[in-house]
Each structure stands twice: as structure tokens, then as C-alpha cells.
UniProtKB/TrEMBL annotation:
Signal peptide, first to last residue: none
Keyword flag Transferase: yes
InterPro entries in the cross-refs: Anti-sigma-factor_SerPK, HATPase_C_sf, HATPase_dom
Record bears the keyword Transmembrane helix: no
Keywords assigned by UniProt, alphabetized: Kinase, Serine/threonine-protein kinase, Transferase
GO MF, one example: protein serine/threonine kinase activity
Higher taxonomy: Bacteria, Bacillati, Actinomycetota, Actinomycetes, Streptosporangiales
Pfam families reported in the protein's UniProt record: HATPase_c_2
Identification of the protein by name: Histidine kinase/HSP90-like ATPase domain-containing protein
């Protein structure tokens, strides 16, 4: 089984808790461990907040999450003027602001930043899912692996 949630959201701070709660509810229903869900919520919040703050030319943005086997993949896509992630300034972990990239890198298993020339930016985040004992997601999402190995 694979699960996908994709939303096109207004570039407004009110949109962040909407997608965060939708994804968390899905992960909770599958039985993903709480600390993993909290990491994903914070990563997603930081990525969406960066779009809201920095994607000047964009009225909306898209969040696409895919749950497959034991992975959660998130893409946050904006249609702004793009952001040069290689030139992002390094900030102190104790700084009051500007720590979003550091937070995403600390919590995600994999982070990729893509600048699309004149078409905005994409933040790709991946996190390995750990499940509670007897969680529905353990059997539902991991079914693909056992089915594939029997073929």
C-alpha cells in the first residue's frame, strides 16, 4: 500500500497547521511512533514557514507527502522566484530566527533543496517510519515488500 496526500495551499500562515494536522492524523492512524510524528510535524512546519516567509512571487504552494513501506517523503513546492540554498547563511543553533534549514537537516534522514530557475523551489524531506507494536501501518505499508519478494 502507498498513501499520498497532496494539497495546494494559500501562502498564508493558517495553512501550516492544516497540512501538519492532516499528515499527523494519517501517521497516527497507521500507528507511527509519536517521536517520529513530532519530527515530521516540525520538519514540515519549517519547510512551509519558509515558503510563506520567502516565496515572494507565489500566491500558493503545494505539499505532497508519500508514505511507502517504511518511508515518509515530503515535497514542499513553491512557484516563487527561487532560493539559492547553497548561499544560505549559517546561523547559531541558539539564534532566535533563521534556524529552519538547520532544524530540517537535524530531523530528516534526507534533505534536498532544488531551485527551479524562475519556477520556485522544492524542499524534499524524507524520514524513516517506526511503528508501534501491532500498528496497522506496519502490515499495510510493508505489504508491498513481502508481495514483491514472493514474485
Amino acid at each position: 500500500m502507498e498513501a499520498t496526500i497532496a494539497l495546494r495551499l494559500p501562502r498564508d500562515a493558517a495553512s501550516v497547521p492544516v497540512i501538519r494536522q492532516m499528515l499527523d492524523s494519517s501517521l497516527d492512524a497507521l500507528g507511527v511512533q509519536r517521536h517520529i510524528r513530532e519530527d515530521i510535524q516540525l520538519m514540515l512546519s519549517e519547510a512551509c514557514s519558509n515558503v510563506i516567509k520567502h516565496a515572494d512571487d507565489s500566491d500558493d504552494y503545494t505539499v505532497r507527502t508519500e508514505l511507502s513501506r517504511d518511508r515518509c517523503s515530503i515535497k514542499v513546492v513553491d512557484a516563487g522566484s527561487g532560493f539559492d540554498f547553497s548561499g544560505a547563511r549559517q546561523v547559531s543553533p541558539s539564534a532566535e530566527s533563521g534556524r529552519g534549514l538547520l532544524i530540517m537537516q537535524a530531523l530528516a534522514d534526507d534533505v534536498r533543496f532544488v531551485k527551479r530557475e524562475d519556477h520556485g523551489s522544492v524542499v524534499c524531506l524524507e524520514k524513516t517510519l517506526l511503528f508501534e507494536e501491532d500498528a496497522p501501518g506496519k502490515s499495510l505499508l510493508l505489504t508491498d515488500e513481502s508481495t514483491t519478494s514472493r514474485r
